[in-house]
Amino acid sequence: xxxxxxxxxxxxxxxxxxxxxxxxxxxxxxxxxxxxxxxxxxxxxxxxxxxxxxxxxxxxxxxxxxxxxxxxxxxxxxxxxxxxxx
Amino acid sequence: xxxxxxxxxxxxxxxxxxxxxxxxxxxxxxxxxxxxxxxxxxxxxxxxxxxxxxxxxxxxxxxxxxxxxxxxxxxxxxxxxxxxxxxxxxxxxxxxxxxxxxxxxxxxxxxxxxxxxxxxxxxxxxxxxxxxxxxxxxxxxxxxxxxxxxxxxxxxxxxxxxxxxxxxxxxxxxxxxxxxxxxxxxxxxxxxxxxxxxxxxxxxxxxxxxxxxxxxxxxxxxxxxxxxxxxxxxxxxxxxxxxxxxxxxxxxxxxxxxxxxxxxxxxxxxxxxxxxxxxxxxxxxxxxxxxxxxxxxxxxxxxxxxxxxxxxxxxxxxxxxxxxxxxxxxxxxxxxxxxxxxxxxxxxxxxxxxxxxxxxxxxxxxxxxxxxxxxxxxxxxxxxxxxxxxxxxxxxxxxxxxxxxxxxxxxxxxxxxxxxxxxxxxxxxxxxxxxxxxxxxxxxxxxx
Amino acid sequence: xxxxxxxxxxxxxxxxxxxxxxxxxxxxxxxxxxxxxxxxxxxxxxxxxxxxxxxxxxxxxxxxxxxxxxxxxxxxxxxxxxxxxxxxxxxxxxxxxxxxxxxxxxxxxxxxxxxxxxxxxxxxxxxxxxxxxxxxxxxxxxxxxxxxxxxxxxxxxxxxxxxx
Lengths: 86, 448, 164
Hints:
The structure holds 3 protein chains of 3 kinds. Chain A has helices spanning 2-15, 42-56, 63-69, 73-83. Chain A is mainly α. The longest helix of chain A has 15 residues, at 42-56. In chain B, the strands form 3 sheets. Chain B has a 10-stranded mixed β-sheet with strand order 5-4-6-8-1-9-15-14-10-11, with helices on both faces. A 3-stranded mixed β-sheet of chain B has the order 2-3-7, with no helix packed on it. Chain C has 6 helices and 5 strands, in the order βααβαααβαββ. In chain C, a hairpin with a 2-residue loop joins strand 4 (137-147) and strand 5. The model of chain C has no long low-confidence stretch (mean pLDDT 97). The chains are: A mainly alpha, B alpha/beta, C alpha/beta. Chains in contact: A-B, A-C, B-C. Chains B and C meet through helix 3, strand 5, helix 4, helix 5 and strand 9 of B and helix 3, helix 5, strand 3 and helix 6 of C. Strand 5 (122-124) of chain B pairs antiparallel with strand 3 (109-113) of chain C.
C-alpha cells in the first residue's frame, strides 16, 4: 500500500501539472478538493477519472462517483487496490 | 448610430435547408437525432447526411452553401469592394489535423474565394458564443463605415476530435437533450451551417439597378451551382423524423403558419427559375413583407464571467452583464421571447436562469432550440437567431423540445408549447467555455 | 501605448517565476494561454487596484494558428485516452478567459483569427471593439503559437482615447 500511495502521488502530480510538488508535500489524508489541501477543480476530477482508467483499468460511471473516490490519496489508493484490473 | 439590418439568410440543417421547412420542423418537434457509433463510445447527435458528397471538405462545402443562399436572397454582389466576410466556427476542418492546414484562417480564405469576396475575411472564434460574436462583429464593421454589407457565416461539422472531447468532459447525453428540464443530463452535438447578410440598407439591395448589367462579368450558372443540386444534404425525411413526432395540429394550413415565407417562392425556389438563362433580364425582386421591413440587430455585448474556463459562473455574472447592456432602455414587455443557449447541461441552464432573473426577465417567455438541432457550436448563434426571426415573423414563440418539468431555480418562463405573440423583438443569448457570454437584441425594423 | 513581447522559445516557467510566482494554475495552461497570461502580467503588474472586478476593459486576442499547438496534443491523447484537461484548451479563446479570470476583468473578451500578422487590420478591429460603450481600455495581443517552443507575440495596453 505504501508503494501504491507513493506511485499514485507521482502520477497525480504529473497528470494535474502540480508544479514543484513532491510526494512528501501531499498528506495521505488531506482533502484533494475544496479550499484546503490541493484545491483541485472540476477538470482535475475528470483528469483523475482518466488516470484511473489508463493506469489501473478502472472506469468510473460519473464525476459524482469521483468525488467520493478522490476524497484523499489514501481513499483513492484503497479504492484502486480493491478495484484495479491491471 | 447606423442601423444594421438582416437582408438575407441561408441554412443547411439536418431537418431541411429552406427556412420555412426548418421552422415547420421546429414547430412540429421534429429532429434528426439518432445514436451514432463512436470511438468507441456511441453518441447521440443531429448530423447532416454526407451521402453522395465528394469533395475535399464537407465543412467548406456547407459553409459555402449557406453563405451562397444568404447572398442570393440579399441580392448583393459578394465581390464588391465594400462587402466583408466574418466566419464563425469553433473547430472548422479539425478532423484533418494529421494531414492538412486546419487553421480557421485557411477555412475563411477558402470560403472567401468560393463566394468571390475580395476583402480580407476575419474569423471570430469565441467558443460556443462564436456565432453571436460574429454577428456583433458584422454589426460593428458596418457601423465603422467601411462596409455596406457583411456576410456572416457560421458552420460546424462533428468529428472524433470534438465528440471524444465532450465525452471526456462527461458533457454528452445519450438521450435527446432536455433544456431547462429537471432531468436534463447533458448536451447533444449537432451539425449545421447558417449565414446572414447584414446591411446598412434595409431593402433588398440591387447593386446594378439597370437589369441588363446585373450579370455583367458573372456567369449565373457559376453563381449558384450548389443550392439547386444537392438533395443529399436534406436526406430522406422519412428516415430523419420519427413517426411518433408528427403532430397534425401543428401542421395546419401552411399559409397560416408561414404567412411570409410562403408568399415569396421566388426567394426559395430553383435559382434557374429566378434568373432564367434565356432572359436577358433577371426576374424582378418582389419585396416581401419581411424584406420591406427587415429585422434589425439593434446591439449586442460580449462579457466574461472572470470565474472559470469551463464552469459557468454561479451568479450568471457575464450573462447578466451582457443582458443588462443590450436591454438598456428596453422594457421586458417589448420582448416576444429570449432564445437562450439551453445546452441542457446542469450548470449552463441553471446559470442562465439566474442571469435572466437578475435581468428582470423571469416573466418573458424563454425557449431553447438544442432539442431540435443539438449544439451546433459555431453555427448555433446564427442558426438560432434566424429560426427565432422566422418564428417571430410567423407570430409564434417556439416550443422548447425536450422540456417538461422546471429544472432551474429560480424558475424562468420556459415556453414548453408553442404560443402566439404579436411582439416584434427578441434577445438571443449564448454562453461558452473561456467564461464568455453574449447577448444580441433583434427588433423588426420600424417596430419601435 | 505600452507594448511588450516574449521572444520565441523563451522559458515561460522562468518568466512566471520572475514576474508572478503565486498562481499555480499557470502550470495547467497550454502554451498559448501561458503566453497571454505572461504578456498581460508584464503590461499591468504595476497598475493600482489590480484584481478588483471591472467591466470596462476588453481582452482582444489575435492569431493565425489559434490553439493548433494544443490541438495536436489533444489529437494525440484522443487515440487512446482523450484528456479532458487538454480538450478544454482546444479553443482559441481560452487564453482570453485565463487573462480575464486572473485579472477579474468582466468586460468583453474576443478572439480573432486573421490570415497573417497585419497591424493595420488589428487596429481596425480594435477600434470597432471600442463601439461597446462600456469598454474604456483593452488588452490587445497577437499571439501566434505554432508549437510549445515557437511563437510570435506582441501585446499592447490601449486606452480608448488613443484609438479615436
